[in-house]
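User: I'm writing a tutorial on reading structure tokens. Could you give me a worked example: one chain, its sequence, then its tokens, then a sentence or two explaining what the tokens reveal?
Assistant: Sure. Here is the example chain.
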Amino acid sequence: MKETDFSRGPVWRSVVSQAAPLTAAQLVHLLYNVVDRIYIGHLEDVGGMALTGVGLTFPIVTLIMAFSALFGAGAVPLFAMSRGRRDDEGAGRIMGTSASLLLVSSVVLTAAGYIFMRPVLFAFGASEDSFVFSSAYLRYYLIGTVFSMAATGLVGFINAEGFARVGMRSIVVGAVCNIALDPLFIFTFGMGVAGAAAATVISQAVSAVWVVTFLAGRRAPVRLQVKNLKIIPSVAKRIAKLGASNFIMQGTTCLVQIVCNATLQRYGGDLYVGIMTVTNSVRDVFMLPVSGITSGAGPVVSYNFGAGEYERAKAGIRFTAAVGTIYTAAAWLAVLIFPSFWFGIFSSDPEMTEVGVGLMRTYFFGFVFMAFQFSGQSAFQAVGDARHAITFSLLRKVVIVVPLTLLLPVLGFGTTGVFLAEPISNAVGGAACFITMYFTVYRRLGKSLAAPRSV
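And here are its predicted structure tokens:
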């Protein structure tokens, strides 16, 4: 099959050709957890508490995804730049090192998860009641860590080789399995929360097999080969350096989730932890398109940057920022007008809905600024500017969200303060990230900022 050349044709078309199937793939991938939450949130009698319990596992799931981003997403821009220079041998070494790092880290994370499960969940805000559900879910979910990391960490290479539709199918096939298996395991087998996790593990295994099979097959221009399945220190260092921004972004999300749940448990109890679980679920759905467009633009910008086509790289950045801003503004409006509809998708608990609708409106205020954060981060990473990417990952969450989450409740805002911290951080962090990107990357492309000759 003919590979895609991102240096030809309209840039916006290259971005859309990558982003459309990638967004669809991410949407379907989100169904792994979203479908679980929908079924769990509507379990008779225990839905509210079960949803709270599953919400307490989010930081652990997010941490696993952080390592996938560190070793997977951190390698993809280097891989794309090598392809832009027609250095397929170097690209193969990058892919092999990435796969090896993902495998080793998945084994370590699985072992740590089982050993420290109880103390970690209680530190994250669990009560004796909610621990019953969170531990039941996590015991099964951890089994699939290696599959989850392989599927999410390696799929970016398929997209970077120009086969975004194949990447989409790799996620779709697993998500379809999850949708089919969820009611079977949860209701027919009577496993409840544990059944949701078991269905997820099986589905992730299917996706992982699909991804690895394609990358090792003849259709891939740069194949995943056994000879490259080793950790090359120099390559690993570059992957980790560039992937650090993704890791920090995911890792700080994990930190924010921990601080939010623990603070909400202190000031409001299990009910408010459950409300945050629903709010985060709605946010995950609305974040998909802007995440998809920036993820789709990444390989295009990186490829053109590596090929020395700087005006095309700038066009990719402009298109990403414009589309992201329009979309996030529309999403913000949708939540403000129809909050009960979105909340009701995940919970039928009347008390949780009555209290949660207003808090969700607060949380989504200023959602449009997320487009600035995403497009700025994407541009930094696409050109290999790890320092700025890391700085702004830390700024929004560690420097702004976490302190505000701890401080605002003390100042009299109570549980509302926890939900208010997010929009403040979006506005300040998003604007700072985008403005800095404009002056340090966009305006300098092709002038004082040029692609390196080798990776």
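What the tokens reveal: The longest helix spans residues 270-307. The chain is about 80% helix and 0% strand.
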